[in-house]
Amino acid sequence: MDINTPVATIYGDLHEKQIERWKTQVSGLRERFGEKIEEVLFPREYPTDTPIVFVRADAICEVLEFLKNTPEFEYGYLSDLTATDEQEAPRFHVVYNLLARKTMTRIRLKVRVAEGESVPTAIGVWPAANWAEREVWDMFGVRFDGHPDLRRILMDVRWEGHPLRKDYPLRGYQFFPTPEPIDPSLLG
Questions:
Q1: If 105 and its partner were Cys, which of 27, 62, 97, 100 is the partner (CB 3.0–4.6 Å)?
Q2: In terms of Cα–Cα distance, which of 80, 87, 130, 103 is closest to 21?
Q3: Domain range annotation of the chain
């Protein structure tokens, strides 16, 4: 069994139910944003469960806002924001998983980011992106322009490097014999 093998669920084969909606929506995105949509990968043509739309970094907030607020789309829920280290140029993919709750339709947006480049923050579209962007920065080192508080969220502030990068040493242990120092500005 692989990702293209339909799995029986109480909802039926979601791919068959969603494929026409996805095609219409992707067509609408391409019409609206043109060259800002770099590539689209569809289920069954590519090993994925939902369409993957690659968007230029400078257009990601515009596309996210459109998907959230346009009646034909209504992807009002940012279910996940993460990244992957592809170890090829461009090195990282920042991943936005969206859900339209009315139709239970999902779509995945990706932004290709080279080492040292940044992505605009999505906090203006989804305030909840705040912590997820901090996690991506902490684990991968991808920066988000305009983020109000881009600091470590999982690792000790003294930690060196970004542990989910594929070039991070497997035995890159770092031990701190004392507790993490308290940032006085956070004590309010």
A1: 100
A2: 103
A3: 14-186
Q: State pLDDT tens for residues 3-62.
A: 566 666 665 666 677 888 999 999 999 999 999 999 999 988 888 889 999 999 999 999
The confidence score (pLDDT) of residue 17 equals 74
Structure tokens at 175: 């031990």
C-alpha distance across the termini of the chain, in Å: 54
> DSSP secondary structure string, 100-130?
ETTTTEEEEEEEEE-TT-EEE--TTT-TTHH
Burial of 78 (0-12, 13-18, 19+ CB in 10 A): buried
**What CATH class is the domain 14-186?**
alpha beta
Rounded Cα distance between 15 and 9, Å, is 12
